[in-house]
Every structure is written in structure tokens, then in C-alpha cells.
Write a structure and sequence with these properties.
Order of helices and strands of chain B: HHEHHEEEEEEEHEEHEEEEEEEEEHEEE
Strand content of chain B: over 45%
Number of strands of chain A: 6
GO biological process, one term (chain B): protein insertion into mitochondrial outer membrane
Order of helices and strands of chain A: HEEHEEEHHHHHHHHE
CATH class of one domain in chain B: Mainly Beta
Family (chain B): Belongs to the SAM50/omp85 family.
Main location (chain B): mitochondrion
Radius of gyration of chain B: 32 Å
Oligomer: heterodimer
Protein name (chain B): Bacterial surface antigen (D15) domain-containing protein
CATH architecture of the largest domain in chain A: Up-down Bundle
Distance between the termini of chain A: 43 Å
Strand content of chain A: 5-15%
Largest sheet of chain B: 17 strands, antiparallel
Pfam families (chain B): Omp85 (PF01103)
Chain lengths: ~260, ~500
């Protein structure tokens, strides 16, 4: 229970005279977008994002025929929940990643789709992380270790052990295990896709198709993983087909209005 | 020759009985109370000693002044007690003073210069010079040895403190090592935790640069980091880590500092309510910049605060060939003057201005480099950083600002010695962004000067050394729609006020 002290009436009446003169608002450059704008991480020399989650959102909006502008100059630090992609709406709202599919009107995910997304996350994402470019010494510290612990079950042990005088740092990943799981996931994907145009036999693209495309596209950028994917021509052909559809949608780079 | 003279000249003084009264009537020796008598004798002893001391000083002064033109030369300088100071450093300090000497006056002048140079190193708590006849077998008649008895500062120093800064309080721990390599170098490190600056650290290595007789140049290398809590006005936090190297030179007009700074800034920790403008600015940026700062501060402490003139000019060039994300030319000026107005009152005039000119191709400046204005330490009756462009709850800062203040500070009636003073003030200021694509710079400067926010009020000031606390009752007279005004009471604690 909070006690609020109200301004005495006479004092409030005195304050009401001020300011004696009011000037117009100070002009400032505030970002606004005439069309919905998707904030994504960029990729060098490609209109498709290099980040799996951002590419999945980009692909979903394209496959559902939603015309959005793109912004690649923003970082995850400025995003809602610290995670890209975000969707900026003309009314000033900024939607987090998990709300984009709902805004786009994507059909609700069925249980099997959720299971496939979980498989992709636990089997393909570790392989992408294994081959991610080393950014700095900080990769050995808390940041990257937390990523591995979130992806793998059980979480991988640290690089230093009980017998080491060094403080806990780094991660000891079972590289062969990760590669084996990656290959098994590709096999399962190829089997499930079969000759269908869209996953799970859907008649139109769903969020699962966008997610699978994002993972496959990012994996095909890694030479070591590309060789594994080439063993499944159906997946390669499917990825090319979806990529063509995504790139076919005209994306305009957004300038922002003042 | 009369009888008295004969008595004085003839033989020893006559014997007197024990405890006979030998005082003369002029002494006015008390006769009654023993305690009073003892006090009288003590006072007489003190008077006699003071008189003897003054006589000795007068005699020495006469002796010195009478022999200033006597031929003399310093043949050797010995420094006694400098156990941790390098001989080479001492030689570099002393040698420039040992020029051509022909007279005793020259030798005294050189000795004074040497003592001043040693004192300026801040490595010694005391320097006591002594002149003695030269003891070297090679010395000529009239040669002198200068003996300098020095007491070095304690080498290690550690302190914990709670402090009040500009609008914030903090707790800190500071460690310092003097005379690190024997050349009056200082290595200091400090860690602090505060209300606005959540945590910060600095490590500074400073050393004097010996150039001629006047030890007025210092070099400094500093590594620093801080975490600033800007949630109340920018829905974010800012982390800064950097390294700065500077050369500082004292001149009769003031102090010049030339510096290079490389800093990494992170805008992070956004609140869920952060505006789109702040989300755009949330990123890592680097600043690589050269700067020059000139400060002239001849203010003196008084019960009414610091009186006198103060001027600070600073310029900074970032980016371009220096690299980094920040690219701008920044200039800032602070000027103030305080003086007695009429008995019991002090008039204080203060003005500040700054320009941040973008040099990046996008013609945009970064949030970390922009100016902020408003609050109890600048334009009163405005919230902290309450002027300028806003986006929702966030203050976006600006590229062009000016602020001016007039304060009349008076003594509390019948209590002029109190550090508590009355205060009446008028402040004005304006903070704008630059849009060079739309309007020329001159037009924007004119518009900024022509449309300030103006506030006025009265209050009380408490002066405590360098810091000052104010409690004011003020109102905005002229304000922009976007200004965050404070009507009524406002408290401010800090070092520099408008």
C-alpha cells in the first residue's frame, strides 16, 4: 500500500501558470517505417541473412507473400529480448522473434512440426556452431559455453577439469558425435520430405518449411557440411527451390522516415 | 666621570642576598601569587626568545643582503635522504640550475630553483637546503656545497572512501605507488561503485618530463573502464573501456593537455520500454580521437564558494584517419566568474556551449558522443538530461547546445560565517540536433541561440570544500514541449554548477 502525497491545491494552481511560454517540441530523428520492416543480421554479399533464426523469419514472410522491408544495420543488443529477428510495424510496435509468425498469419504448428524443429535445433545447430568462425578469445568464455550447454543434452564438460589449477573455461565437445547426429538428421529430413513439395505433406509453405530451409541454407555455406548435404540430392533440390521462391519476393532496403 | 660610571667600570658587581629581587620597575613583575609569577616568567621567556629569533633573522638577512655580490660558486650539490630516487633523475632536475654563477646571490637563486624543482616532483614531503663551504680538495676559495636534506613520501598508499560527485555518490578504493622507477613516477589504481556509475576502474601511470629548469610537464597513461546506469533517462546502460595517453603542461596562463584516446563503448541492458531510437543506438562502437584541453582556473576558496575566473576549452577530433566508428569534430567551452557583488553577496555568471560536427558520410553522430543538458547541475528546474530531442522516455542528446546561468548568493542574515547561503538564480539553455542536410550550420546555430528554455528560482546552498549541495525551489518560465520540467523543489549535489 503506497501513500501518495498530493500537491496542495494553491501550489498546483501556482504551478499551472508555468511555463509562461511554451516552445515547439525539439526536433529529433526518430526511426519510423512506412512498411513493416524486418530487423535481421546481415550476410556478406547476400540478401539472405547468415543467422538461422533471422533467415527463418525472412523466409517465412517471403513464402507467405508478406512484403516487408529489411534492416541489417542493427544488432541483437537493440532487439527485444536481446535476440534478432524483430519486426518493426508502421505504428511503432516492435515485435519479438516469437511473435512474427503469428503476425504473418502462419498456420498453427502441429506437434510433429514442433518435434522436427526440436530435432533441427539439437542436431543441425550444433554442427553450425562447431564450424562458426572464431570471433575472439571470448568464444572460450562464458558466452559460447552457454550456447553449447543450451543445445546439447547432456551439456558438454568444460575444457578444464577438477585436476586443473585453471578456472573453468572452454568446452569439450564430442565432435564426432555432433557430425554423426548431423548426418542422421539429414537422413531423417530426406526421408520425411520424400517427393512432397512442402514438409509434412502440406499444400502450402509453413513455418516448418521456413525453418528447415534456414538450417539447410546456412549449413550449405559451410564446406565441411555441404559435402554431407550433397549426399541427399532431394534436399539440395528442395533448398534451391525454396531459395528461388524467397529471393523472388522483392525486398526493399528500408530507409527510415524522420 | 661620575660615580655611576665609576661604579660600572670598577670591579665585579656587588654581592646580593639570595632571592633578592633583581627585577627593574619597568618589568612590572607581580609580587603576590606564585602562579601568576610563573606565568609572567614564562611570557617573559617567550618574548625574549621571539626577540632573539627576530634579531637573528634580521642579522642573517643583513649578512646575506650585504654579501649578495660576494664572489661565490656552487661546486657540488648533495642530496641526502633520497634512497629510492634515481641519481640520474636528480641530476636531470638539478643540472639545469647550475649555470654560470659568479656571486653569492646567483648561488642562492640557483638553490631556490633546485628546491622548487624537487618540490614539484611531489616525491618529497620536505626539502631543506643548507649551504656549506666546499669540502672538496679541488674547491676554490668561495666555493659552496649545497646540501639538500629531503624526506621522501611514503611509497605505498591505500585509501578507501565514500565520495559525492556530480549528482552521484560512490564508494571507492584507491592504491598508489610513488617513485615507481625512481623518477617520481606514480602508479595508481582505483575501483569505485556508485549510484549512477555502477562500477568503474582506472589504472594510471604518470611521470614528469624533465625539460629544462621548470618541471611543468607530465606524461600520463591511463586504462579505464566503467559501467554507467542510464536507465532513468535513456532506458539503457553504457559500458566503456578504453586507454588514454596524455601530455599535460602547466603555463602561466593555464594548463594544456594533449591526449589520444581509444575507447570501446557498448550501449546495452535495454529496458523493455526502450524506444526505437535507443534500440538503433544499442551496439558496440569504438572511438579513436585526438584532443586538446586548456584550463585556466584561478578561483580561490571562500565561505561563499569559489571566487574568481574559470575557463575551459576543449577540442576533439575523432575518426577520419584515426579509425574507429566515431567520426566528428567536437568543441566545448565552459566559462564562469564569481565575485563579491555588494557586502554579503556574491554574483556568479556561468556559461557553457558545445558543438559536435559529424564527419561521417552518414552525417550522423553516435549517442555516446552527444551532449546532454538539464538537471540540478546545469539548467535547474529540468530533470536530469531533460532538454533536447526525446523519443518516448528516452533523451536522445544533441549536437549543439548552450547554457547560461546567473546566481546571486547571499549570507544568512546575522550568520555570515555559516557555509549555508541563500541563492537566487536564472538559468537558460537549449540542446538541438544538427541536420546539415536540411539547413546550413549557421542557421541552426542562430535558431538554437534564439529559442532557449528559461528557468528561475530561489534556494539554499551548502558549501563544503570543493563540493556543493543545493536545494532549490524553481519554475520553468519558458520551456519546449519536449522538455522534462521540474516545478518546485529540486536537490543537487556536485562539484560544478551552472
Amino acid at each position: 500500500m503506497s501513500a501518495k502525497i498530493s500537491t496542495p491545491r494553491r501550489l498546483a494552481a501556482f504551478y499551472s501558470h508555468f511555463p509562461l511560454k511554451t516552445l515547439p517540441e525539439v526536433e529529433g530523428r526518430r526511426p519510423s517505417a512506412a512498411t513493416p520492416t524486418l530487423w535481421i543480421q546481415p550476410a556478406p554479399s547476400s540478401p539472405l541473412s547468415a543467422d538461422v533464426d533471422c533467415l527463418a523469419a525472412q523466409a517465412l514472410l517471403a513464402l507467405l507473400g508478406k512484403h516487408v522491408a529489411l534492416r541489417t544495420d542493427l544488432t541483437a543488443q537493440g532487439a527485444v529480448d536481446g535476440r534478432l529477428p524483430n519486426l518493426q510495424l508502421p505504428d511503432g510496435q516492435l515485435l519479438p522473434a516469437h511473435a512474427i509468425a503469428n503476425w504473418a498469419g502462419a498456420p498453427a504448428e502441429v506437434d510433429e512440426a514442433r518435434a522436427w524443429v526440436s530435432l533441427l535445433r539439437s542436431s543441425i545447430r550444433p554442427a553450425l556452431l562447431l564450424h562458426a568462425p572464431r570471433q575472439s578469445l571470448l568464444d572460450w568464455s562464458r558466452g559460447k559455453r552457454d550456447e553449447w550447454r543450451a543445445l546439447l543434452s547432456p551439456p558438454p564438460p568444460p575444457a578444464t577439469g577438477l585436476g586443473s589449477p585453471l578456472p573453468v573455461f572452454g568446452t569439450r565437445v564430442d565432435v564426432e558425435g555432433v557430425r554423426h547426429q548431423f548426418a542422421a538428421a539429414l537422413h531423417a529430413l530426406a526421408d520425411r520430405l520424400g517427393r512432397d513439395q512442402w514438409f509434412l505433406g502440406a499444400s502450402s509453405p509453413t513455418a516448418l518449411d521456413a525453418t528447415v530451409f534456414a538450417y539447410l541454407h546456412c549449413a550449405m555455406k559451410v564446406p565441411e557440411l555441404r559435402a554431407s548435404i550433397d549426399a541427399f540430392p532431394a534436399l539440395v533440390k528442395w533448398e534451391q527451390h525454396v531459395r528461388a521462391k524467397v529471393l523472388d519476393v522483392k525486398h526493399q532496403q528500408s530507409g527510415y522516415d524522420v | 666621570m661620575d660615580d655611576d660610571d665609576e661604579n660600572l667600570l670598577s670591579g665585579p658587581a656587588p654581592l646580593r642576598a639570595p632571592l633578592a629581587n633583581t627585577s627593574s620597575p619597568r618589568d612590572a613583575e607581580p609580587e603576590d601569587d606564585i602562579e601568576v609569577l610563573l606565568r609572567w616568567q614564562e611570557d617573559r621567556m617567550k618574548r625574549r626568545l621571539a626577540g632573539e629569533y627576530e634579531s637573528a633573522v634580521v642579522r642573517i638577512a643583513e649578512l646575506v643582503n650585504g654579501n649578495l655580490d660576494a664572489p661565490a660558486r656552487i661546486s657540488a650539490v648533495r642530496v641526502l635522504g633520497a634512497t629510492t630516487t634515481r641519481p640520474g633523475f636528480l641530476h636531470a632536475l638539478i643540472a639545469p640550475h647550475l649555470g654560470e654563477q659568479a656571486t653569492f646571490g646567483d648561488a642562492l637563486h640557483a638553490t631556490r630553483g633546485i628546491v622548487e624543482s624537487l618540490a614539484r616532483t611531489d616525491a618529497f614531503t620536505g626539502v631543506a637546503p643548507t649551504l656549506a663551504l666546499a669540502t672538496s680538495p679541488l674547491a676554490k676559495p668561495g666555493d659552496l656545497d649545497v646540501l639538500l636534506h629531503v624526506r621522501e613520501h611514503s611509497r605505498f598508499y591505500f585509501r578507501t572512501a565514500t565520495e559525492l560527485g556530480d549528482g552521484e555518490g560512490s564508494a571507492s578504493a584507491t592504491g598508489r605507488i610513488r617513485n615507481v622507477f625512481g623518477g617520481a613516477e606514480t602508479l595508481a589504481a582505483s575501483v569505485s561503485f556508485g549510484t549512477k556509475t555502477r562500477h568503474s576502474f582506472t589504472a594510471t601511470f604518470a611521470a614528469p618530463i624533465v625539460t629544462g629548469k621548470h618541471l611543468n610537464t607530465r606524461a600520463e597513461l591511463q586504462v579505464y573502464g566503467s559501467h554507467l546506469d542510464n536507465e532513468s533517462w535513456a532506458s539503457s546502460s553504457e559500458e566503456i573501456e578504453g586507454v588514454k595517453t596524455a601530455i599535460r603542461r602547466d603555463t602561466p596562463w593555464g594548463t594544456h593537455e594533449f591526449a589520444y584516446e581509444l575507447a570501446q563503448r557498448h550501449i546495452c541492458g535495454l529496458l523493455p520500454s526502450a524506444s526505437l531510437s535507443m534500440r538503433e543506438q544499442a551496439r558496440d562502437t569504438t572511438k579513436s580521437a585526438l584532443s586538446h584541453t586548456f584550463v585556466h582556473d584561478s578561483r580561490v576558496e571562500s565561505s561563499a564558494g569559489r571566487l574568481g575566473p574559470y575557463l575551459k576549452l576543449s577540442q576533439e577530433l575523432a575518426g577520419v584517419a584515426l579509425g574507429g566508428d566515431a567520426a566528428h569534430l567536437k568543441g566545448e567551452a565552459h566559462a564562469s566568474f564569481s565575485g563579491r557583488f555588494f557586502p554579503g553577496t556574491t554574483l556568479s555568471l556561468s556559461t557553457r556551449a558545445g558543438l559536435l560536427y559529424p564527419l561521417a558520410p552518414s552525417r550522423q553522430t553516435l549517442f555516446s558522443d552527444r551532449f546532454q543538458l538539464g538537471g540540478p547541475l546545469s539548467v535547474r528546474s529540468m530533470r536530469w538530461n531533460g532538454l533536447g530531442a526525446r523519443d518516448g522516455p528516452d533523451s536522445l542528446g544533441g549536437d549543439l547546445y548552450w547554457a547560461a546561468g546567473v546566481s546571486l548568493i547571499g549570507d544568512i542574515p546575522r550568520k555570515p560565517h555559516w557555509p549555508l547561503k541563500t541563492h537566487a538564480w536564472v538559468n537558460a539553455g537549449r540542446l538541438d540536433g544538427l541536420d546539415l542536410a536540411r539547413r546550413p550550420l549557421a542557421d541552426q546555430i542562430r535558431a538554437t541561440l534564439a529559442s532557449p528554455s528559461v528557468t528561475a528560482g530561489v534556494g539554499l546552498i551548502f558549501n563544503h570544500g570543493l563540493a556543493r549541495a543545493e536545494i532549490n525551489f524553481g519554475v520553468p518560465l519558458v520551456a519546449a514541449k519536449s522538455d522534462r520540467v521540474v516545478k518546485g523543489l529540486q536537490v543537487g549535489v556536485g562539484l560544478e554548477f551552472l
